[in-house]
């Protein structure tokens, strides 16, 4: 039993070192990180894999018993009974030669189909949905991106789910190779604290304390925090007094320190906003903006006397005036949302930006699908969008349902370009609440819209003269906690000529 544990432990350490040292990016994979909904399936997948391993071992045990009784039978069969005098009797010699040949063939046939081969085939088949190396790396990068946007230390991020030293160390390495030395330093420090607590235990670990101290020194050095770098290099030298590389780094740091006047504080994350998108995501709305937002109004709308809306008027709230952004509350029921999610789940594939470009998106971490009007719920939702906006759906795109992944976000972009028949307006339905993060923000006007399940927001991307409204640049903030689902309807110019007459004025 002890031997088996050792074998497994060695295999895990070998794998961890591999994961930590080699930056393999495989191009295939299931890309779980881009949809939280698929992440949930991994729990089931893990249980399945252990169950499969168990069934394999049971089969292996049966197989061993079968082989052993086969051996007994071979030993006892008179067919293989040793002939007498094979060295003097040529017939006995012939008999022996033939017996050995047949025995050999029998064993080959009996052992030909090793259960290991079948099991390995299963392990590499598509039946098992195993995250790729790229999935693991992207998951790590998504967490680091969350830290950057929301200014989070490892302790903030791991409040709900503590990481072990290997998991934390791997995050540090990922931040380090991305030149994010401060975040790398904080993850290595987090790792060191756990390391100190567990050092006396015989835990599974892919790295040594020396490696960790070297990374701490190196992160601090690259960040420019020389006294901190010197401290960790000194710690390292105490444990490894003959290490010439460390002596060299210590000398370098001391020399540089003499000349350099700045000493950035590596322990404190800079909370000054360099980027209005990130500030908005963190909820830092300007005083002026929030005052202006409060004066905007709510009302019931019948879409100018639309018969479908007279009995059930829409709850309309003006979220912003210039550009006009309208929120419709309770535009879709929980039941309808559940059905749309159920239809979409099997169809979701990694989001692709633009139509037919075929490249997987690096700026949007989500999975999306366009829904045909095969289901009555899709028809109803599309009709409600037509009623609310008063626009023709004739040239609109199909309803697009999206589920975001770990830290899922969509960086700043415009929905429209400068081609013919552009996306004149966007109708964005929130199909979930998001516990923390995930706001839709308009950095040029300083507006942040919180997802609210069942509501939708609507705006025009184009001025009446057909030019792009530059104020409609927007982004989806990273999801810090929650499973964000949205549905988009992009409505195009053609077909709206008599509904929203175009204008030659530059100002409309
Ligand atoms: C993160 O944790 C630090 C230290 O505990 C705390 O001061 C800070 O307010 C936390 N930040 C956030 C965004 O929760
Ligand atoms: C870890 O332990 C070492 C030696 O026991 C100590 O010098 C160091 O300050 C500890 N570091 C942390 C982060 O607790
Ligand atoms: C959606 O799918 C789940 C799981 O398959 C099922 O339990 C549920 O009843 C479905 N909901 C609707 C509204 O069809």
UniProtKB/TrEMBL annotation:
Cofactor names: L-ascorbate
Family annotation (SMART domains): P4Hc (SM00702)
Keywords tagged on the record: Dioxygenase, Endoplasmic reticulum, Glycoprotein, Iron, Metal-binding, Oxidoreductase, TPR repeat, Vitamin C
One Pfam family this sequence matches: 2OG-FeII_Oxy_3
Gene3D superfamilies membership: 6.10.140.1460, q2cbj1_9rhob like domain, Tetratricopeptide repeat domain
GO cellular component, one term: endoplasmic reticulum lumen
Superkingdom per UniProt: Eukaryota
Domain Fe2OG dioxygenase: 395-493
Compartments reported by the entry: Endoplasmic reticulum lumen
Assigned EC number: 1.14.11.2
Gene Ontology MF term list: iron ion binding; L-ascorbic acid binding; procollagen-proline 4-dioxygenase activity
Primary location: endoplasmic reticulum
Family: Belongs to the P4HA family.
Role according to the record: Catalyzes the post-translational formation of 4-hydroxyproline in -Xaa-Pro-Gly- sequences in collagens and other proteins.
Alphabetized PANTHER family for the sequence: PROLYL 4-HYDROXYLASE ALPHA SUBUNIT, PROLYL 4-HYDROXYLASE SUBUNIT ALPHA-2
Name used for this protein in its record: procollagen-proline 4-dioxygenase
Protein species of origin: Triplophysa rosa (Cave loach)
């Amino acid at each position: 039993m002890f031997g088996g544990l050792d074998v497994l432990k060695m295999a895990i350490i070998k794998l961890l070192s591999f994961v930590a040292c080699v930056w393999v990016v495989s191009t295939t994979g299931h890309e779980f990180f881009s949809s939280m909904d698929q992440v949930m399936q991994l729990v089931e997948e893990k249980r399945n894999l252990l169950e499969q391993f168990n069934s394999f071992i049971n089969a292996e045990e049966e197989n061993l018993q079968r082989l052993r009784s086969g051996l007994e039978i071979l030993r006892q069969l008179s067919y293989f009974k040793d002939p007498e005098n094979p060295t003097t009797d040529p017939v006995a010699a012939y008999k022996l030669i033939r017996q050995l040949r047949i025995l050999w063939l029998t064993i080959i046939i009996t052992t030909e189909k090793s259960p290991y081969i079948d099991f390995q085939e299963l392990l590499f088949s598509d039946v098992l949905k195993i995250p790729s190396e790229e999935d693991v790396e992207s998951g790590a990068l998504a967490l680091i991106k969350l830290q950057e946007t929301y200014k989070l230390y490892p302790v903030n991020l791991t409040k709900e789910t503590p990481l072990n030293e290997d998991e934390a160390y791997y995050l540090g390495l990922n931040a380090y190779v991305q030149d994010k030395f401060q975040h790398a330093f904080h993850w290595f420090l987090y790792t060191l604290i756990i390391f100190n607590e567990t050092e006396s235990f015989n835990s599974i670990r892919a790295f040594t304390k020396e490696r960790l101290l070297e990374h701490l020194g190196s992160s601090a050095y690259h960040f420019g925090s020389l006294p901190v770098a010197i401290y960790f290099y000194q710690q390292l030298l105490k444990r490894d007094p003959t290490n010439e590389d460390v002596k060299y780094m210590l000398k370098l740091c001391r020399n540089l320190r003499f000349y350099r006047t700045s000493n950035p504080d590596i322990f404190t994350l800079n909370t000054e906003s360099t980027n209005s998108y990130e500030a908005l995501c963190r909820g830092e709305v300007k005083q002026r903006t929030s005052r202006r937002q409060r004066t905007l109004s709510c009302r019931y709308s019948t879409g100018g006397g639309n018969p479908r809306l007279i009995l059930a008027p829409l709850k309309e709230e003006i979220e912003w005036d210039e550009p006009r952004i309208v929120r419709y509350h309770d535009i879709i029921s929980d039941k309808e949302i559940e059905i749309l999610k159920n239809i979409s789940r099997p169809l979701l594939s990694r989001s692709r930006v633009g139509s037919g470009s075929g490249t997987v998106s690096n700026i949007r971490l989500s999975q999306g699908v366009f829904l045909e009007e095969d289901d009555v719920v899709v028809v109803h939702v599309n009709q409600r969008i037509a009623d609310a906006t008063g626009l023709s759906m004739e040239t609109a795109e199909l309803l697009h349902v999206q589920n975001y992944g770990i830290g899922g976000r969509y960086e700043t972009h415009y929905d429209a370009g400068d081609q013919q028949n552009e996306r004149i307006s966007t109708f964005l339905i929130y199909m979930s609440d998001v516990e923390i993060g995930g706001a839709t923000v308009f950095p040029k006007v300083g507006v942040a819209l919180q997802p609210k399940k069942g509501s939708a927001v609507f705006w025009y991307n184009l001025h009446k003269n057909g030019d792009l409204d530059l104020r409609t640049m927007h982004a989806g903030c990273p999801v810090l906690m929650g499973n964000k689902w949205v549905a988009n309807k992009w409505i195009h110019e053609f077909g709206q000529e008599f509904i929203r007459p175009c204008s030659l004025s530059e100002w409309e």
